[in-house]
Amino acid sequence: GLGDVYKRQLATNSIVFKLNSDTLDVEQQTTSDFLLEKRVTEAGSYEISLFNSFGKNSSNLRYSIEVVQDLFPEINVEYFPDSTLYQFVTLVGSISDDYGFSSLKLNYRKEGAQNFTSIPLEINQESSKQSFFANWNIDTLSITTGKRLEFYLSISDNDRVNGAKTSKSNTFILQIPSDEEIEKELDKKSKTCLLYTSPSPRD
User: Fold this and answer.
1) H/E element holding 6?
2) How far is residue 139's CA from residue 176's CA, in Å, rounded to a whole number?
3) Is the four-CA dihedral 111, 116, 122, 127 of positive or negative sign?
4) β-strand partners of 96
5) Can you name the residues that pair with 155 across neighbouring β-strands?
6) Looking at residue 195, what DSSP letter applies?
7) DSSP 3-state of 47
8) Which pLDDT value is given to residue 118?
9) What φ, ψ does residue 70 adopt, rounded to 5°?
10) CA neighbours within 13 Å on the CB side: how many for 88?
11) In terms of CB atoms within 10 Å, which of 68, 143, 177, 200 comes out highest?
Protein backbone atom coordinates (compact mmCIF):
# COMPACT_ATOMS: atom_id res chain seq x y z
CA GLY A 1 0.00 0.00 0.00
CA LEU A 2 0.96 3.64 0.24
CA GLY A 3 2.65 3.07 3.57
CA ASP A 4 5.08 0.54 2.07
CA VAL A 5 6.05 2.90 -0.76
CA TYR A 6 6.55 5.75 1.73
CA LYS A 7 8.86 3.65 3.86
CA ARG A 8 10.96 2.55 0.89
CA GLN A 9 11.35 6.13 -0.25
CA LEU A 10 12.75 7.08 3.15
CA ALA A 11 15.18 4.13 3.24
CA THR A 12 18.81 5.18 2.66
CA ASN A 13 21.25 2.89 0.89
CA SER A 14 24.28 5.14 0.98
CA ILE A 15 25.51 8.49 2.32
CA VAL A 16 28.01 10.94 0.87
CA PHE A 17 29.63 13.11 3.55
CA LYS A 18 31.64 16.16 2.49
CA LEU A 19 33.72 17.99 5.09
CA ASN A 20 34.85 21.32 3.65
CA SER A 21 36.36 20.17 0.31
CA ASP A 22 36.98 16.53 1.32
CA THR A 23 34.64 13.59 0.70
CA LEU A 24 34.75 11.10 3.59
CA ASP A 25 33.85 7.43 3.68
CA VAL A 26 30.77 6.55 5.71
CA GLU A 27 30.52 3.02 7.05
CA GLN A 28 27.16 1.30 6.72
CA GLN A 29 26.67 -0.89 9.79
CA THR A 30 23.06 -2.02 9.22
CA THR A 31 20.37 -1.26 6.66
CA SER A 32 19.57 1.96 8.50
CA ASP A 33 22.67 2.72 10.60
CA PHE A 34 25.74 4.54 9.31
CA LEU A 35 28.94 5.49 11.13
CA LEU A 36 31.55 8.18 10.50
CA GLU A 37 34.34 9.11 12.89
CA LYS A 38 36.44 12.18 12.15
CA ARG A 39 38.56 14.39 14.40
CA VAL A 40 37.91 18.06 13.64
CA THR A 41 40.39 20.69 14.82
CA GLU A 42 39.26 23.79 12.94
CA ALA A 43 36.05 25.52 11.97
CA GLY A 44 34.34 24.67 8.68
CA SER A 45 31.21 23.08 7.24
CA TYR A 46 29.94 19.68 6.19
CA GLU A 47 27.31 18.45 3.75
CA ILE A 48 25.31 15.21 3.76
CA SER A 49 23.77 13.66 0.65
CA LEU A 50 21.41 10.68 0.98
CA PHE A 51 20.86 8.02 -1.72
CA ASN A 52 18.52 5.08 -2.13
CA SER A 53 17.11 3.00 -4.99
CA PHE A 54 14.82 5.86 -5.98
CA GLY A 55 17.59 8.42 -6.32
CA LYS A 56 19.12 11.26 -4.29
CA ASN A 57 17.51 13.56 -1.77
CA SER A 58 16.37 16.78 -3.43
CA SER A 59 18.36 19.10 -1.16
CA ASN A 60 21.66 18.44 0.58
CA LEU A 61 21.87 18.88 4.32
CA ARG A 62 24.52 21.49 5.13
CA TYR A 63 25.83 22.32 8.60
CA SER A 64 28.51 24.57 10.02
CA ILE A 65 31.19 23.52 12.51
CA GLU A 66 32.52 25.77 15.23
CA VAL A 67 35.58 24.54 17.09
CA VAL A 68 35.99 25.84 20.64
CA GLN A 69 39.66 26.00 21.57
CA ASP A 70 40.63 24.18 24.76
CA LEU A 71 42.16 26.75 27.12
CA PHE A 72 45.12 26.30 29.46
CA PRO A 73 44.23 25.43 33.06
CA GLU A 74 44.67 28.05 35.78
CA ILE A 75 46.24 27.64 39.21
CA ASN A 76 46.66 29.83 42.29
CA VAL A 77 48.73 28.69 45.27
CA GLU A 78 49.68 29.93 48.72
CA TYR A 79 52.03 28.15 51.10
CA PHE A 80 52.45 28.31 54.86
CA PRO A 81 55.59 26.75 56.35
CA ASP A 82 55.77 25.30 59.83
CA SER A 83 57.59 28.26 61.36
CA THR A 84 58.47 26.38 64.56
CA LEU A 85 60.36 23.23 63.54
CA TYR A 86 60.12 23.50 59.73
CA GLN A 87 58.86 19.94 59.43
CA PHE A 88 56.02 20.53 56.97
CA VAL A 89 54.56 23.03 54.50
CA THR A 90 50.84 23.63 54.09
CA LEU A 91 49.72 24.19 50.49
CA VAL A 92 46.39 25.91 49.79
CA GLY A 93 45.06 26.94 46.39
CA SER A 94 42.53 26.69 43.60
CA ILE A 95 42.52 25.26 40.06
CA SER A 96 40.16 25.74 37.14
CA ASP A 97 39.80 24.53 33.56
CA ASP A 98 37.13 24.49 30.89
CA TYR A 99 36.85 20.68 30.75
CA GLY A 100 38.71 19.05 33.65
CA PHE A 101 42.10 17.82 34.79
CA SER A 102 44.48 14.91 34.45
CA SER A 103 46.92 15.67 37.30
CA LEU A 104 48.12 18.14 39.93
CA LYS A 105 51.78 17.80 40.90
CA LEU A 106 54.11 19.28 43.49
CA ASN A 107 57.58 19.74 42.01
CA TYR A 108 60.59 20.41 44.22
CA ARG A 109 64.36 20.34 44.30
CA LYS A 110 66.85 20.84 47.07
CA GLU A 111 69.66 23.34 46.75
CA GLY A 112 72.38 21.91 44.51
CA ALA A 113 70.07 19.54 42.64
CA GLN A 114 69.56 20.01 38.89
CA ASN A 115 66.25 18.23 38.38
CA PHE A 116 62.89 18.59 40.08
CA THR A 117 61.17 15.66 41.79
CA SER A 118 57.39 15.43 41.31
CA ILE A 119 54.76 14.31 43.81
CA PRO A 120 51.13 13.80 42.67
CA LEU A 121 48.46 15.56 44.73
CA GLU A 122 44.88 14.32 44.99
CA ILE A 123 42.19 16.22 43.07
CA ASN A 124 38.79 15.58 41.50
CA GLN A 125 39.64 15.18 37.81
CA GLU A 126 36.03 15.71 36.69
CA SER A 127 35.38 18.98 38.54
CA SER A 128 36.34 21.98 36.38
CA LYS A 129 36.80 24.34 39.34
CA GLN A 130 37.92 23.39 42.82
CA SER A 131 40.08 24.21 45.84
CA PHE A 132 42.81 21.99 47.24
CA PHE A 133 44.69 21.61 50.52
CA ALA A 134 47.76 19.52 51.33
CA ASN A 135 50.28 19.16 54.12
CA TRP A 136 53.71 18.40 52.68
CA ASN A 137 56.09 16.66 55.06
CA ILE A 138 59.53 18.15 54.30
CA ASP A 139 61.15 16.63 57.37
CA THR A 140 61.75 13.42 55.37
CA LEU A 141 63.78 15.32 52.75
CA SER A 142 66.75 15.66 55.13
CA ILE A 143 67.47 19.23 54.12
CA THR A 144 70.62 20.62 55.69
CA THR A 145 70.01 23.69 57.84
CA GLY A 146 70.77 26.90 56.02
CA LYS A 147 69.96 25.31 52.65
CA ARG A 148 67.12 26.28 50.33
CA LEU A 149 64.16 24.30 49.06
CA GLU A 150 62.66 25.36 45.72
CA PHE A 151 59.18 24.23 44.68
CA TYR A 152 56.16 24.96 42.50
CA LEU A 153 52.87 23.29 41.56
CA SER A 154 51.79 22.27 38.05
CA ILE A 155 48.29 21.49 36.82
CA SER A 156 47.54 19.55 33.60
CA ASP A 157 44.21 19.43 31.79
CA ASN A 158 42.63 16.37 30.16
CA ASP A 159 42.98 17.37 26.49
CA ARG A 160 43.05 13.98 24.74
CA VAL A 161 43.07 15.51 21.25
CA ASN A 162 46.20 17.66 21.27
CA GLY A 163 47.76 16.34 24.49
CA ALA A 164 47.47 17.67 28.03
CA LYS A 165 48.31 21.35 28.52
CA THR A 166 50.16 22.26 31.72
CA SER A 167 50.25 25.50 33.72
CA LYS A 168 52.66 26.27 36.55
CA SER A 169 52.32 28.28 39.72
CA ASN A 170 54.88 30.77 40.95
CA THR A 171 58.11 29.22 42.16
CA PHE A 172 58.61 29.42 45.92
CA ILE A 173 61.89 29.29 47.85
CA LEU A 174 62.02 28.19 51.46
CA GLN A 175 65.26 28.48 53.40
CA ILE A 176 65.68 26.15 56.36
CA PRO A 177 67.08 28.07 59.35
CA SER A 178 69.96 26.80 61.44
CA ASP A 179 69.42 24.98 64.73
CA GLU A 180 70.44 28.13 66.62
CA GLU A 181 67.88 30.22 64.74
CA ILE A 182 65.16 27.67 65.44
CA GLU A 183 66.08 27.63 69.14
CA LYS A 184 65.95 31.43 69.29
CA GLU A 185 62.55 31.44 67.58
CA LEU A 186 61.21 28.81 69.98
CA ASP A 187 62.56 30.75 72.96
CA LYS A 188 60.99 33.95 71.64
CA LYS A 189 57.61 32.25 71.20
CA SER A 190 57.85 30.69 74.64
CA LYS A 191 58.48 34.07 76.27
CA THR A 192 55.62 35.61 74.31
CA CYS A 193 53.33 32.82 75.46
CA LEU A 194 54.33 33.35 79.08
CA LEU A 195 53.76 37.06 78.73
CA TYR A 196 50.17 36.53 77.60
CA THR A 197 49.36 33.78 80.09
CA SER A 198 50.88 35.30 83.26
CA PRO A 199 48.24 36.41 85.78
CA SER A 200 47.84 40.15 86.29
CA PRO A 201 49.33 41.46 89.57
CA ARG A 202 46.78 42.23 92.27
CA ASP A 203 46.61 45.53 94.07
Assistant:
1) helix 2-10
2) 11
3) positive
4) 74, 129
5) 104, 167
6) H
7) strand
8) 98
9) -80, 120
10) 6
11) 143
